Amino acid sequence: ETGVTQTPRHLVMGMTNKKSLKCEQHLGHNAMYWYKQSAKKPLELMFVYNFKEQTENNSVPSRFSPECPNSSHLFLHLHTLQPEDSALYLCASSRRPPGGNEQFFGPGTRLTVL
Amino acid sequence: ELKVEQNPLFLSMQEGKNYTIYCNYSTTSDRLYWYRQDPGKSLESLFVLLSNGAVKQEGRLMASLDTKARLSTLHITAAVHDLSATYFCAVSPYNTDKLIFGTGTRLQVFP
């Protein structure tokens, strides 16, 4: 068990639905991340939060809306998604540098957009 | 833009054999990470390499980092079936909190 949990593990939604992904870390870290993993593509960083502040938005479409209410919780709100958004969404957490920023990953949410 | 390239992308090897996976990156960095991913599972941290010349070993896997050549290697010694997985390297650019991942190397070990 990695100490990073994600819910739900699987999600099927229509293009007009609104849903949210949840991530929680129990490691005392202060940075949290959202990644997208699609078939045949490298892992893509979406958002970075440090101490609840967003420090990176990797040109992600506005239909993905992150929220970080505290250092332990991270949400990804989804609305009007497209079929090409179907992927595995991974959450990760880390301590801030120095000392290296090894990231610990959750199990992921497998999202299917119909 | 930082690019991270791994090769090979796919590796099929026989049990007991040795092989090396290569990770090249395009800009300066002194932090490199190796992860393992089993099918349908999340990423598991294997090694953290934080300086030029760093070498770390765990069981049949050994990772090294040459920051001058912008190259890291993951060496597999006497492969066993349990090592079958996808291996990713990831590089952290200076003064950032993000990781840029390579494309992954899918390793399959057969008897």
Number of strands of chain B: 11
Tally of contiguous helical segments of chain B: 0
- Share of residues in helices of chain B: under 10%
Radius of gyration of chain B: 13 Å
Which structural class should the secondary elements of chain A be placed in?
mainly beta
**Which sequence of SSEs, written as H and E, runs from N to C of chain B?**
EEEEEEEEEEE
Spans of chain A with pLDDT under 50 lasting ≥5 residues? none
C-alpha geometry of chain B: globular
Overall mean pLDDT of chain B stands at: 92
Percent of residues in β-strands of chain B: over 45%
Question: In a few lines, what is going on in this structure?
Answer:
The complex is a heterodimer of chains A (114) and B (111). With 114 residues, chain A is mostly beta strands. Chain A has strands at residues 4-7, 10-13, 18-25, 31-37, 44-50, 53-57, 64-70, 73-79, 87-94, 104-105, 109-113.
Features:
heterodimer, A: 114 residues, mainly beta, four-stranded antiparallel sheet, 11 strands, B: 111 residues, six-stranded mixed sheet, five-stranded antiparallel sheet, 0% helix, globular
